[in-house]
Design a protein that fits this description.
Helix 1 packs parallel to helix 8 and helix 4 runs antiparallel to helix 5. This protein is an alpha/beta fold and about 350 residues long. The structure holds flavin-adenine dinucleotide. The site of flavin-adenine dinucleotide has 37 residues, from helix 1, strand 13, strand 17 and helix 8.
Length: about 350
C-alpha cells in the first residue's frame, strides 16, 4: 500500500502582528500559508490613518497619523533578533522622543517604530505571502476535507487542513463557537480596554517636547507624529496623536467621534502655554473598541493549538498587552504547529 502525504494547507485569519509573525514562521517551516484579513491593509492595531488636507492656497496634502500603537519595545531575545533583522531591512527605526511629564521630566527613552508607518512591520513579515485582504471571515465550516472559511458576503475559501486565528478574543470566540466551545467560552471572558484616539494637525511651532504623559485630564499620552523617524508633514504643519485614558474612553464609549475630538482637542490645547491659542488644520477621533487587554490578562500558554481539529489561536492577550506580546504569540504558534505537523503529517 502506498501512502500519499497530503501537503497541509493553512489559513491564518488576521494580518495584525500576531498573524504576520505566525504566517512568517509557518512559511519558514516550508508550509503552504494563506492570510485573510477583513481590512484593506495589514497591521491591525499597528495602524496608520491618512487624511486629505487642503491648505489655504488650495494645495492638497496628505496627513498621516499612527492612531493605533505609536511605538513599542523589544525585550525578549527572539523578538529583539527579529527586530534587528527588520531594522537592517529598513522597516524599523529607533525613536528617542523627548518626553515631557509636568513634574518632573522623564528621561528620554528609546522605542521602536516601523517606517515609514506602523503597518510596515506586518507588511515586511508577510512579504509575498498570499494575502486576501477585505475578507471578513464570518464563520468556519468543517467537513471531511477540512476547514472552509465563509466570508460575510458568502464567498467561500478552502478547504484548509488547519486554521490559525490571530484576531482579538471577542471576534475569535464568534468563529470558534460550535467547534471549540471551551476556548470560545474562555475568550468571552477576556476583557479589553477601549481607547479613544485624537488625530490633530496644527500650525507648527517650536514646541520643546515630542511626546507627553499628562498627569491629569483625559489624555494619557500624546506625541508629535511627524517627528517620529521616517514621517513628515506638509510645511508648517505639526501632526499629533493623543490616546485618551482608559477611564475617559470607558466613560465616553458611546459618544460621537465629533464630540470626543472637540473634548480631546480642548485637553490638547490645555497643554500649551496659556497665551498660545492653537490653530487647527485637522481634528478627528477614532474609537478602538478593543484596544488592549486589561493589564495582567495572561494565558498559561503563549498560544493555543488543538492538533485534532487543526485549530490554532494567537494574539497579544495570551502573552501580554503589546506589540511584542502579539509577535511572540504568533511566532510560538508557528513553531508549535510546524513541530506537530512534522511529527504526524497528514496521510491518505
Ligand atoms: C490605541 C492603541 C495604542 C496602543 N499602544 C501601544 C504601544 O504604545 N505599544 C505597544 O507595544 N502596543 C500598543 N498597543 C497594542 C498593540 O497595538 C497590540 O497589542 C498589537 O498590535 C495586537 O496585535 P494582534 O495581531 O494580536 O491583533 P490585531 O492587531 O488586532 O490584529 C487582528 C487582525 O485581525 C483582523 N480581523 C479581525 N477579525 C477578523 C475577521 N473576522 N476576519 C478577518 N480578519 C479579521 C483585523 O482586521 C486585524 O488586522 C496599542 C493599541 C491601541 C489600539
Amino acid at each position: 500500500m502506498s501512502i500519499a502525504i497530503i501537503q497541509p494547507r493553512i489559513a491564518v485569519i488576521g494580518a495584525g502582528i500576531a498573524g504576520a509573525a505566525c504566517a512568517a514562521g509557518l512559511r519558514r517551516a516550508g508550509l503552504d500559508v494563506t492570510v485573510f484579513d477583513k481590512s484593506r491593509g495589514v497591521g491591525g492595531r499597528m495602524a496608520t490613518r491618512r487624511v486629505e488636507w487642503i491648505d489655504p492656497s488650495g494645495s492638497v496634502f496628505e496627513l498621516e497619523f499612527d492612531h493605533g500603537a505609536q511605538h513599542f519595545g523589544a525585550r525578549h531575545p527572539r523578538f529583539k533578533l527579529e527586530m534587528a533583522r527588520a531594522e537592517r531591512a529598513g522597516v524599523l527605526a529607533r525613536w528617542q522622543p523627548h518626553i515631557h511629564t509636568a513634574w518632573p521630566e522623564l528621561p528620554s527613552q528609546t522605542s521602536l517604530v516601523a517606517v515609514p508607518n506602523m503597518p510596515a512591520l506586518a507588511r515586511h513579515l508577510l512579504d509575498r505571502l498570499p494575502l486576501r485582504s477585505e475578507h471578513p471571515v464570518h464563520h468556519l465550516e468543517r467537513d471531511a476535507l477540512g476547514w472552509t472559511l465563509v466570508m460575510g458576503d458568502r464567498r467561500r475559501e478552502g478547504p484548509f487542513s488547519s486554521v490559525m486565528l490571530a484576531i482579538p478574543p471577542a471576534q475569535a470566540a464568534l468563529l470558534l463557537a460550535g467547534h471549540e466551545d471551551t476556548w470560545a467560552n474562555t475568550l468571552q471572558l477576556v476583557r479589553m480596554e477601549a481607547c479613544w484616539t485624537l488625530m490633530a494637525a496644527t500650525e507648527d511651532f517650536d514646541w520643546p517636547w515630542d511626546a507627553a504623559q499628562p498627569e491629569r485630564g483625559p489624555i494619557a499620552w500624546v506625541a508629535r507624529n511627524e517627528r517620529k523617524p521616517g514621517r513628515s508633514a506638509p510645511p508648517g504643519v505639526a501632526t499629533w496623536v493623543a490616546h485618551a485614558t482608559p477611564a475617559f474612553s470607558k466613560a465616553h464609549l458611546h459618544e460621537s467621534p465629533e464630540a470626543i475630538a472637540a473634548e480631546l482637542g480642548r485637553a490638547l490645547q490645555a497643554l500649551w502655554p496659556a497665551n498660545r491659542p492653537l490653530q487647527w488644520h485637522h481634528l478627528s477621533a477614532h474609537r478602538w473598541r478593543y484596544a488592549r487587554p486589561y493589564p495582567g490578562v495572561r494565558s498559561a500558554e503563549a498560544c493555543w493549538w488543538d492538533g485534532t481539529l487543526g485549530l490554532g489561536l494567537c494574539g497579544d492577550f495570551l502573552v501580554g498587552e503589546d506589540v511584542e506580546a502579539a509577535w511572540r504569540s504568533g511566532d510560538e504558534l508557528a513553531d508549535t504547529v510546524a513541530a506537530a505537523l512534522e511529527e504526524s503529517p497528514l496521510c491518505s
